[in-house]
Amino acid sequence: MNHTSTWADSFSDAAQAAITDREVLLDGRADLNQFGIGRFLISPGRVSGLVTARNTGSELHTAITLPILTTDQTAALRTSTAQCAHHEADEPALPDPTHTGGVTLLPDPSELRFTCTCTAAVPCRHAAALTHALIDRLRTHPDDLATLRGLRQQSHPAQDVPAAAGSTNTDTRPKSQLSAHHAWASYRECPELLPIPDYSPVLPVAPGPPGWSPPPSPAPSAEHLYALANDAATQAASFFRSGTPLECAWDDDAVRLAARIPNTSIPDIADRLGLDVADLRNRITAVPPSSRLLKPTATSTRN
Questions:
Q1: Which of 148, 126, 127 lies closest to 137 in space, CA to CA?
Q2: CA–CA separation, 221 and 261 (whole Å)
Q3: Has residue 294 got a pLDDT over 60?
């Protein structure tokens, strides 16, 4: 007499008392149905397996541990079983639930310990998946509870628990029981989420204008730059006032600037213009003094 439902239901009650978060239990059932459990193994005081992470597909090592029965508890249990009217010679080590000699065969919820290689707080959804796999196993093989509690040594090698046959809906939780707050908290805290893909278009960067090359040596001084700017302003003002043409002969323009810009090299300018030095000096002298550059005063700067 295996009393399948009694042992499995009782262990399920203990597990639900240990895993108090109903959402974690529902997540674990969904993971078990979709991925199954790899290397599922029941041994004295321990059940372990490989649980597939939903978002990354990696295998997580998950285990549930609990204390095995002491020597005195085992002796009392065997004595009670031998005297039970339901006992048969070929009965396995798991006794009738009503004849345990006062020994509590099922673990207390506080004795269940959960471990997982994921970074979430335990008991996590992966530990819940392993718990569901154990409960399902006890429904078909209740004698494995005897192995788990240390009444007998391991009798089955590690095996794979397949995913649910024909399962297309990977989320088995009732939609009305999943709150938006819990869904967002699970999404935010789950370390296995893949990064959100970025579909932003990649725009080519237009090349900027080439930088100005440095002026040839010797570079113009601040005084020379002021003179050039002042000359340009004078020519523009004259054009707007009287319509004076801006075009002029290259040498006339150079002579005017030579008269306006201080500390110019007369021989160098004459050589560039192809003029005699004395002729260039005469032409500079002929420029009206009123049009020559004067250093600005505070009043002229404000005007």
A1: 148
A2: 11
A3: no
Q: What's the DSSP call for residue 213?
A: P
Total domains in the fold of the chain: 2
Q: Would you say residue 195 lies in a domain? A: no
Residue carrying the six token digits 């029941």:
42
Last residue of a domain, one of 145, 164, 183: 164
H or E element: which one contains 133?
helix 125-140
- Residues 24 and 155 occupy one common structural domain: yes
Predicted confidence (pLDDT) per residue in 175-218, tens digit: 445 456 555 555 555 555 556 666 666 777 767 666 666 666 66
Q: Within a domain: residue 105?
A: yes
Helix axes 277-285, 266-273, angle to 10 degrees: 110
**What does the alpha-carbon distance between residue 298 and residue 303 come to, in Å, rounded to a whole number?**
9
- Which structural domain, as residue segments, surrounds residue 262? 222-298
The segment with the largest mean pLDDT, out of 67-81, 249-263, 288-302, is 67-81
